[in-house]
Amino acid sequence: MKKLVLFMVMIFFVMTAANVFAGGESIESIFYSLDMDKDGNVTREELCVYYTDIEVCSERFYFYDRNDNDMLSLEEFVGLAGKPELVFVNIDKDKDGRVTKKELCALYDDVAFCEKRFIHYDRNGDGYIILKEFEVVFK
Question: Would the pLDDT of 23 be above 90?
Answer without folding.
Answer: no
